[in-house]
Write a sequence for this structure.
């Protein structure tokens, strides 16, 4: 089969390393081309350079795509999101445990039904691509069919996605609870069918400590021990009522994190959503295992859970990723997540620069998910997942950007004012998968 060559012309911004927290990125960490081009061969990036430097190198049959006036970046990454909660976004909140019982669990019950799961998976992926998000680590429901439907839809679109079946064998409606070991067997079947297939990976998904028995958590730890290339995702220390409940349920563990440690769930591929109410000693315990905290700012603000101290994590050597946590989160857009992260940071005296924001949304998240050798930056050999941003998307954005001087100012203003209208197109695996109407 002959290879397909494409050349996407426009401005390009990518991080190749952590730019740091200052207004000027650390030397060598970012790349920008004003009139650049990305040469894509099938699903991979062949070269990124000035358009003038590449135009003479590409073969005659190359398809040329003109994005002059637009800004290309690596596809955005969401490290923690619940596809089964799209229909309850912005359900009149109150706090976590009420919100779970009143809205979340009833919505997830519907995912026993294949037709609902399939239609929801398609709707969710449409929305992700409209927002420029090409990879996510996804909670499905406790029904295996919710996972099969999600992976099948992602596979058809050739997306890099990580997903898993929720495990919970207590403290939830009967229609959602697993048989303790039956849930593990279902997970093993899903791993066999999907993990490592095309661009898909499996993530073991005990919902959170209160909804799994010690026996179930032990069994999850056993699966992880035997297959260290699997991911694991759960929730940790989001809300004070939740933390008090965990200490009642697991009095023998030293603290909430200790429950996960005691069952072998804390490792380099483990993502713990929230991690708001942690002390430095707990942050260091997580860091020592190479785990990451998914910072979910719009969710934390919506549910009033608290302000995640991103720099305290950094100082403890603990990796953080960025996530929407929809349906607790109020925006599926990476821009919405960045705006929330900026606001949380501002309240903690830790404002977020545009450099650091876009780094977190792309390469930072790819690193946290051990995917930086494939996605998260625009470099030769990387998979061609690209978001095309339109600085003229709205009259206001256009006017605001016309008032900026430096790239730092432009990136920051785009970060704070961008939304799904800013996404002109999204590419995945070297093909266009979304085009703004
Ligand atoms: N803790 C346990 N389940 C959930 C959930 O679905 N969303 C959030 N935000 N926290 C949780
Ligand atoms: Zn969540």
């Amino acid at each position: 089969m002959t290879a397909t060559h494409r050349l996407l012309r426009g401005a390009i911004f990518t991080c190749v390393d952590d730019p740091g927290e200052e207004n000027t990125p650390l030397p060598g960490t970012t790349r920008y081309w004003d009139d650049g081009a990305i040469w894509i061969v099938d699903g991979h990036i062949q070269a990124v350079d000035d358009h003038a430097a590449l135009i003479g190198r590409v073969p005659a049959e190359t398809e040329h795509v003109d994005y002059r006036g637009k800004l290309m970046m690596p596809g955005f990454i969401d490290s923690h999101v619940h596809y089964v909660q799209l229909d309850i976004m912005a359900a009149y909140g109150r706090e976590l445990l009420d919100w779970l019982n009143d809205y979340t669990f009833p919505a997830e019950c519907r995912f026993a039904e294949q037709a609902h799961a399939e239609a929801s998976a398609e709707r969710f992926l449409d929305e992700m691509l409209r927002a420029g998000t090409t990879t996510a680590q996804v909670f499905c429901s406790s029904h295996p069919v919710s996972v099969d439907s999600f992976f099948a839809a992602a596979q058809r679109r050739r997306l890099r996605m990580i997903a898993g079946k929720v495990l919970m064998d207590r403290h939830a409606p009967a229609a959602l609870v697993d048989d303790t070991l039956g849930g593990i067997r279902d997970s093993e079947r899903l791993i066999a069918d999907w993990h490592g297939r095309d661009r898909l990976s499996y993530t073991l998904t005990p919902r959170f400590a209160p909804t799994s028995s010690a026996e179930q958590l032990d069994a999850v730890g056993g699966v992880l021990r035997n297959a260290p290339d699997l991911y694991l995702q759960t929730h940790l220390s989001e809300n004070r009522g939740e933390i008090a409940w965990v200490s009642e349920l697991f009095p023998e563990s030293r603290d909430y994190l200790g429950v996960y440690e005691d069952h072998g769930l804390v490792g380099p591929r483990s993502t713990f959503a929230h991690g708001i109410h942690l002390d430095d000693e707990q942050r260091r315990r997580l860091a020592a295992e190479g785990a990451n905290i998914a910072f979910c700012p719009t969710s934390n603000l919506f549910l009033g859970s608290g302000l995640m101290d991103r720099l305290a994590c950094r100082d403890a050597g603990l990796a953080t990723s960025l996530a929407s946590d929809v349906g607790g989160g109020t925006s599926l857009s990476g821009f919405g997540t960045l705006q929330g992260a900026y606001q949380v940071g501002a309240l903690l005296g830790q404002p977020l620069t545009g450099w650091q924001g876009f780094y977190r949304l792309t390469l930072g998240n790819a690193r946290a998910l051990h995917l930086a050798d494939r996605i998260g930056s625009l470099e030769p050999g990387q998979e061609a997942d690209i978001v095309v941003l339109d600085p003229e998307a709205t009259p206001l954005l256009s006017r605001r950007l016309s008032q900026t001087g430096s790239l730092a100012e432009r990136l920051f203003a785009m970060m704070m004012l961008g939304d799904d209208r800013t996404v002109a197109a999204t590419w995945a695996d070297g093909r266009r998968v979304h085009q703004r109407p």
Remarks:
- The domain at 76-332 is CATH 3.20.20.140 (TIM Barrel).
